[in-house]
Amino acid sequence: MNPIQLYKKAYNGLSRNSWYLSLVVLINRSGTMVLPFMTIYCTQALNFTIVQAGIIMALFGVGSITGAFIGGKITDKYGFYDVQVGSLISAGFLFIVLGYQTTFISICCCVYVLSVCNDAFRPANSTAIAAYSTAENKTRSYSLNRLAVNLGWSFGGALGGFLAAHNYHLLFWVDGCTNLMSGLLLLKIMPRSNYKKPHTDVTHPDAKSSPYKDTVYLVFILLTTLFATCFFQTFTIQPVFYKTQWHLNEQVIGGMMALNGLLVAFVEMVLISGLEGKRHPLRYICMGVILTGIALTMVNWLPPSVLVATLVIIVISFGEMFAMPFMNSFWVVRTNDHNRGQYAALYTMSWSTAQILAPIIGSQIIALSGYTTLWWAMAVVCGVSATGFFFLYKLRFQHQLVTITNS
């Protein structure tokens, strides 16, 4: 099968609404530039201390957890459509307001409220993707959404660097306006008058009334948080390692981050198209977690070079592509129309928690024992996570007559 046929097969059969949702996410993420440059803005433009900047960044994480929890609850009660629109438009205005705050307290308050509004979108959007996909293409539907996220992130980061070099306030305006544009586009291409909250009676036999009563899912969330804490080292600690230990310049490091986004954007859909439905999701998740663990240790046993750093990001990218799409497909099939938002919220909260823990744990290990210990420690944590996923599959799902992927 030639490459054109592979891509055609990968994208074939996805619903029009799945494409619409991904377009909304692409525009939204193309304006994501405040968060990556917030620490530099606070310390360089506002003359805050690094401690104050750290507190502000932590509030992004805390607000994200709060927003995901509230967003999931509201989604189950009122439906995903209104939550998505409300989140995008409110966050759009708040990004612009944040750009005019100059005191530490006012920025802290605005950041927290902004993050709550902004991240209420994520469980609602995940629920919407599930509603507009089928059992046969649900993993590819989430991969399409991830493609939009990665393309938007790559573009937003590059544009943000250009704008930051000229005027930091432009970051807040562009981020805010893309949020507003995304909300208005959603209203235009998927009008409120045409929206009907999906109702399906098919429920997976393992589904519970609440994710907090679903023991298997809680174990899954714990293992996901362990993996995510390791994965986020790639974007928090590893760039500093390359700069200070391997003496790579910012342009090379930025290029490797862009390579991650491009690989995921152009490879994942074809990869998932060939894998979806052939094995249980937990088996692919195990493979992805193991690849990530191996990649993080490669800097310990391979010589410092741009080639090795590039190889590391390639292996991590494939680990991401094996693990994350199937994590989404795992939790979706355990839900129904009345609790899907709460399941999505807990999954989002897992990643938000890891986003807070990753730099804290990473920096502490470095301070106590150095970078080499950090990379070995992250490999061990990945090993624990992969082992947990493997035993979850062996003990709970291996002998089921109907696998999750075909439910």
From TrEMBL:
Keyword Secreted: no
A Gene Ontology molecular function term of the record: transmembrane transporter activity
Domain Major facilitator superfamily (MFS) profile as annotated: residue spans: 17-397
InterPro entries: MFS, MFS_dom, MFS_trans_sf, MFS_Transporters
GO cellular component term, pick one: plasma membrane
Protein topology in the membrane: Multi-pass membrane protein
Subcellular location: Cell membrane
UniProt keywords, alphabetically: Cell membrane, Membrane, Transmembrane, Transmembrane helix, Transport
Record bears the keyword Glycoprotein: no
TM regions (residue ranges): 20-41, 48-71, 91-114, 147-164, 170-187, 216-241, 253-272, 284-302, 308-333, 345-367, 373-393
Matches recorded under PANTHER family: MULTIDRUG RESISTANCE PROTEIN MDTH, RESISTANCE PROTEIN MDTM, PUTATIVE-RELATED-RELATED
Stated name of the protein: Major facilitator superfamily (MFS) profile domain-containing protein
